[in-house]
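User: What would this chain look like folded?
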Amino acid sequence: MPVISTRSFLLAALAWGLALPCFAQSGTLARIASERTIVMGYIDGAAPFSSAGSNGQPLGYSIDLCRAIAEGIGAQLKIADLKTRWVALTVQDRLDAVRTKRVDLECSTTTWTLSRQALVDFSLITFVDGANIVTLAESAVSRIEDFSGKRIAVLSGTTTEKVLREALARHKVKAEVVEISSRPQGVEMVEQAKVDGFASDRTTLIGLVAPRSDRTRFRLLDQDLSVEAYALALPRDDHDFRLAVDRVLAGLYRSGGIKPIYDRWLGLLGAPSLLLNATYFIQGIAE
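Assistant: Here's the prediction, encoded as structure tokens.
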């Protein structure tokens, strides 16, 4: 066995030590540092989470989170002028764009599932969605239990119809379920007091009501009827990049920086649900 001198050992250790920062900036972070650009994907038409503004630039709740992430990663890499390049995606190609590294991060309404995690990785949870019910703000209902003896519209043949009927049965609430054929019809029936609420995806309900000039007339229940966790999709097997992304999100949750972002895009329909508040709290991971 060859004898290694103390001097050779020290030189080898020094070389290894100097190489460590390179490992910390491998993969996506290395490319971002090299090109001084982070590439982010978004989906138009997913307001209030992501959509294209009148100037063509993306905007929304998820977009603001990703802008904060870009700023945070720039600070972590000590790049003051880090640029963001936005790429328009579709629901059909968004995961493939992340998988093939056409984008570094997908900023929209992607639900974190185990089958999707076989293709891409996910950040901390950014939003908890699920079935909900929109009502008039002046009504006395705020929970599913308050609908006893009332009428709730829902699209026939949808998963929301199943969730709604199961929730009513579970809470022993005797309410009339009114099957309808379109979402605009549901909001119109609530507005005209033909039903006491309209059940659909929380995101869909927000998208229907938020653009209206009379949006403050409506609000959502304090509780969701089902759970659907949104997260930001990013490439698999890149732990350093995921850590950099999660570090920014955890900081927003821990410091309360998430509140103005939520209020800006979702606040008109009420405070965050109890489940979403708990999600923010639990994920405010310490440094």
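Confidence is low (pLDDT under 50) at residues 1-24. If you want, I can go into more detail on any region.
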